[in-house]
Amino acid sequence: MEISEKVKCLIIGSGPAGYTAAIYTSRANLHPVLYQGLQPGGQLTITTEVENYPGYPNGIIGPQMMVDFEHQAKRMGADIRWGMVTKVDFSKRPFVCEIDEEHAIEAETVIIATGASAKWLGLESEQRLNGHGVSACAVCDGFFFKGKEVAIVGAGDTACEEAMYLANLCSTVHMLIRKGEMRASKVMQERVLRTPNIKVYWNTETLEVLGEKKVEAIRIQNTVSGEQTDIPLSAFFVAIGHNPNSELFKGWLDMDDQGYLITKPGTSKTNIPGVFASGDVQDKIYRQAVSAAGSGCMAALDAERFLGENGH
Known about the structure:
Layout lengths: L2 E10 L3 H12 L5 E3 L13 E2 L9 E2 H15 L2 E3 L3 E5 L5 E5 L3 E10 L3 E3 L5 H5 L5 E2 L2 H4 L7 E5 L3 H11 L4 E5 L9 H9 L3 E4 L2 E7 L6 E6 L5 E5 L2 E4 L3 E3 L30 E3 L11 H21 L3
Parallel strand pairs: 1-2, 1-8, 2-5, 8-19, 10-17, 11-12, 11-17, 12-13
Antiparallel strand pairs: 3-4, 6-7, 7-8, 9-18, 14-15, 15-16
Helix pairs in contact: 1-2, 1-7, 5-6
């Protein structure tokens, strides 16, 4: 494929990590090119109120926050483009990245900020009420349901952590487990079962999220007895995991068994010198906008140093 241009720094992805990397690399005079991908702004674009990001004392809605990030990156000189990277060749530098299956770019450094996507149950009502009481992040959105009844579905350590986080804020947490046991560690399970305002439902599936404009209840079914129950509540949290958006890099970059990119501790460096990873595609622990932005800064600084050490 024909090479259409050569750049010092190519950024793949446009959430907090990608835009922050663009701000820092622009200020370092690296003239970065950023491709936004299928969902410009990432997971923040399906979030309503964001109240835990520093610098927004009155809170801000997620999509507007990402517009602010983009405008700041553009003001610093970043070349932000609609489109997506469809193939990469990291066999040698400069790296070759195919854009929209149409043309290719040569890049001296690549910063990956493709994020992760929450797993959902697949209910129509779940998607319709997403941002109106349905959420995949208890730490992000639990605060809005202080003192109210909520439900969470999931059976792993993350689901247990989020259930306990919600229990500190909400009057009752209905925890829905599909099987007759949890996947979480024994310690986490014991903590959940000891928490008085967490009510655990075993062998339970969610059939529907009820409500027209906001969550009003959920309809559940016991998979053993077949009995259906409606539970009135204000929010429904899905904690069944995330999928890192790393498929593009299989065969090139080291990943864990879930597909998260592996970076050298304390850095954004991958196993290929000159390729850096930031944000949720390499972070399965924190997964917050502010931590993603911080790792985007790290990737930009690592890329700048790498170019300096390699004669640029």
